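Dear support,

Our group has been running a series of protein-ligand predictions, and this particular one with flavin mononucleotide is the one our PI (initials K.S.) wants archived with full inputs and outputs. We had some confusion internally about which version of the output was final, so please treat the block below as the authoritative record. The input we submitted was:
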Amino acid sequence: MNDYSGKNYSVWQTTQLQKQEFEKLSPKEQLIHLCLTAHLAPSSHNTQPWRFMINSDQAEITINIDKEFILPASDVNGRQAIISIGCALANLKVAAKNFGYQVEATILNNDKQIFKPIEKHTGLIPIIKIKVSPTALTENLADIYQAIFERKVTRAEYLENSELPTKLLEYINSLSNNQIKIHLVSDILRRLTISEFQGQADNFVINSKKFSRELGEWLLPNNTTSHVGMPGINFGLSDEEANRLHQGLKGDIPLNPADGLKFSTGGKIGIEKSPTICFLTAADDTIENWIATGEIVENIFLKLTANGIMFTMHAGITEVSLINKLFSMSFLGTSRKILSLFRMGYAKRKEDGDRPHSPRLPLDKVIINY
Ligand SMILES: Cc1cc2nc3c(=O)[nH]c(=O)nc-3n(C[C@H](O)[C@H](O)[C@H](O)COP(=O)(O)O)c2cc1C
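Confirmed final output from the archive:
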């Protein structure tokens, strides 16, 4: 029996701070706490590609991407890693705002070529500079700050007929801007269409040797001591199923057809049966828009968490480029690019909601000058 309380889960135990407690910290400790909140963000395959450099004299943090953690099979453009960086930025901004600080973020590198993954490529690429300064503007974000510590992806079946509150859907819609458009889909016909596209994307992925081997490296046994990657329990897999799928995807043992099928139909059925699907599109497939997408997505996830609503991301439609094109042409009638897709709903089974968090690296491994 795994208890998921090993060292690889320990950052989740960090105490949340009250505003007065934050104010008592030294400037360096304050920046460390902000980096911690960023580190709890979601990331593709739980790679946690962010590496923070703190400059407490200037109240600045530089976020770098560790190139080793841009995945060459599933993330050929580095888009998923950079969306993950946007998610981390959202957490940091929420925490800072909650403590009465504002964050000015500047993108340091928007050359897409630099982020294309190459096997065995290592090194840090600075991507965002953050300047933190006090602000008189106060906003009560206590529940959203708390959600940073509670948020997790729950890949499970949701209650198909339990609709999300209208006010919440209106809030999500309101996050659209000039560049990024939010699309909410709740009717069964369009959900079915999306689930078909997702099924195609998942099939493509599971049948691609390169992709499935990479997934096997990151989908781990439940008793893993790894600080990165996804234990099978986060997919609702038993210890045996997780071991088999880990080894089967890696190619160490034959992939059990039932496991493969369960995995690839999981996404399709999950989408079909979720009350609402959300996807984000942009006219331009730029680094700026990838970061902005990550920010919006994580802001939505925090709001959902604060409201007891679960969500699961599905990057297949985004990253299998033919499916992405077909989807936007047939579904939207435009050539806008889909940058993120996720489903939302209430857990059908309570135990799915009680699953553990995913592992995280220790803080001193992601803050390079800790
Ligand atoms: C950009 C991005 C893409 C993701 N794509 C998928 C996906 O295709 N399928 C999936 O099951 N989870 C996906 N996830 C969820 C991550 O696997 C998850 O965030 C990570 O394992 C950490 O777990 P946590 O979010 O519960 O802390 C994605 C997350 C991000 C940020």
